[in-house]
Each structure stands twice: as structure tokens, then as C-alpha cells.
Amino acid sequence: MRIKFIIGLILILSVILQSTVFDYLKIFNVKPDIVLIAVVILGLSLKLKWVMVFSYFAGFLKDMLGGLPFGINILILPLLGFLVFKLSKRMEIETKYVKTALVFIAVISQNLVVSLLFVLLGLDISIGVFFRFAIISSIYTAAIYFYLSKIIRIPQKITLF
Amino acid sequence: MAKKKFKKLITYLTFFLLTILLASLIPVFRSSSVDAFKYPLNIFTWINREIRAIIFFHRNFTENERVKKEISSLRQKIFIAEELSLENKRLKGLLSFKQSSPYVVVASKVIGRDPSNWSSTIIIDKGKRDGIRLSLPVITERGLVGKVIEVGNSTSKIMLITDPNFGVSAVLQRSRQEGLVSGTLGNLLIMRYLSADTDIKVSDAVVTSGLSQIFPKGIIIGRVKEIGTAFSGLSRFAMIRPEVDSSTLEEVLVVVK
Questions:
Q1: Distance of alpha carbon A151 from the chain centroid
Q2: Would you report the helix, strand and coil content of chain A in percent, each value rounded to 5?
Q3: ipTM > 0.95?
Q4: Which of B111, B114, B116, B250 to mutate to test the interface with A (most CBs of A within 10 A)?
């Protein structure tokens, strides 16, 4: 119960940091997505049920503070959590580099889905803005994950019971 | 005897003249001789310093610690003073605008920003309790900021003009040509639906037209940076540099009346 509570707190903290501190760490007007990093780590470490629970929670928190037309994150984050979990069952994701690549792909996928939804909603997004968001935010987030995994020990498996 | 005296005199005179000569030559040799002494002097000065450092090590060490603490405390104080001075400057600007403005406004602080890259919103520390309602325009003394899209009891969410979902009817201040300004997620805004023969120039001011129910007439949005023609060729568009830099917003005014 305590670990679940701590994970919940970490997610709340990461959304708050994302909305405050990370806004001052923008590069080319793009900030890293630490909530997504948290979801990827959870996808690699928890059982599917808890991956989904915490991914929904993270998506919910992000949508609460965000201004996107509808709950896009509550759709995307559980989907990404699910895919990361399934991928971790099919192949060995052990090294830091593979995990960093996974974070990179997850951010690119998230940006692709959001931009596609924008197009469907009839909102114009220039190619330059799309590439800036897709590429720079992916590299930035992956770099943050890489250095984070160097500084703190990220657990391979988290036992909730 | 006289010869001996004369010889003595000559000797004294020679010494005297030699002294005068040497004294007059000293400035000539001084720089080169000092240069020659540079390295030995340095070595001895260094030895002297090191010996003093060893002798007074403890005293210097404690003094250094004390000075370091003092510097860190002073730095902190300077930082706080600078922050207060900047805040004071900003609030003075807002206050003078609030007093001279024809609108009834509620001043509020920005307490959070959008966690995602794909939308531009901010969260402010005023809500229903302070008279904030949905769709109210938000401004600063420099120009339009956005509109209220969500209201809580003590907080509200503002959609910034840089958000692609944002749209406001606007006119070019000089030629009174109308268009629709919306965000691009980048640093610029786009003004669409300008007729093909629009009288528009770079640096023209763009202000709200007052056609919509939400935004009062004449609030400055930005200035024209680039002009282009739409893909269809039927209309023109302009890229607008907003007057308000939304990335550095710390205080805003919500127009309640």
C-alpha cells in the first residue's frame, strides 16, 4: 500500500514539476515530458493492472492541468503504458540505452498521435512546429531519462504486494 | 705636502663625479635591472607568502570560512532584493495600467503552466470567488494575453493567444482591414482571411476588432512580422509577433467588466 501511495505521489510531483520548473528548462520552446518517463518506467516495472491504473492516473493529472481540447493524455498514456508492458514481455529491455531508445520512441509516438488529433480537429500545425516538438522533445526527454538513470537507481521490478 | 693634498682632492672629485654619473645613469639601467631581478624577487615573495600562509594558516582558514558564509548570505540578500525590485517594477506597471484602464480588472498571479507542449495555457490564482467567469478576456499592460477557459473557486485556467485553439477577430490598426488571429504553438500568431488587396505593411499594429462578444475593441495583439498569400491565392495572411511574451508572464489582469 505504501509503495502505491509513493508511486502516486511521484506522479503528482512529476506533473507539478512539469507545469512549473520544467517550463523554465525549455529548449527551442520545448520541454521534456517527465510524466511520460514515469509511465515508461512503470510499464517496465509493474504488473499490467497497476501499469494501467497509474497510467490513467498520470493521464488524468496531465489533462487536469493541461489545456488540450479533451482528455488526450488519458487516452495516450495508458496506451503507451500498455504497449511498453507488452513489449517488455516479448523482449529483454535491460540496458540503459535500450530503455532510453524506448523513451524516445514513446515520446515520438505520443507527439504523432497528438498532431494527428489536431489535424482531425481541423487545427493547423505547421510542419516546422511539428518537427520541433516531435524531434526535440523526444531527444530532450530521452536525454533527461538517460541522465536520470545515471543519477538515481531505477528499479527493474516493483513489487506491490 | 701640497702635492699630496692635490692628489687627495682629485680622488674625492673623481669619486664625486663618478657618483653623479652613476646617479644620472640609474634611470637608464633601472628598468633592465628590475627585469633581471624579476624572477628572484618573485621567488622570494612567493617563499615569504607561503611561509606567512603556513604561519597564519588557521587564522586565514577561519577568516575564509567566515567570509564565504558572509558572501553567500549577501548573495542571497542581493538575489531577493533583485527579485523584489523586479516584482515591484512589474506590479507598478500593472497598477498604473489598472488605474488608467477603462476596464474593471482583477490582477492575478500565474501559478502554473501547461504540462504539455501541444497547448498553451496558464493557471492563475483567482477564481469564482474573485469574480472570474468563463470566457473573460485576459490582458497585461502590454496587450492581449488570452481568455478564461476554466474557472474554479480560487483558480482559473487561461488559454493563451499562442494556442492553436485560440481565435480572435482583429483589425489592422492603420488600414482597418479585418482578419482572424489564432495561435500557432510557436512564437508567432497567424492572421488569416485578409482580402487579396489588403493594405498591410510589416510592423502594422493588430488590435482586437470588438466584433466578438468576448474581447473589447482596441486591445493590442501584436505587430505584423511577415506577409504571405494563402495557398488558394484568394486571400492573404500575416504572421504576427505578439506584444506580450507569454513565456515570461508572471502577473495578468482579467477584464471582468
A1: 19
A2: 75, 0, 25
A3: no
A4: B116
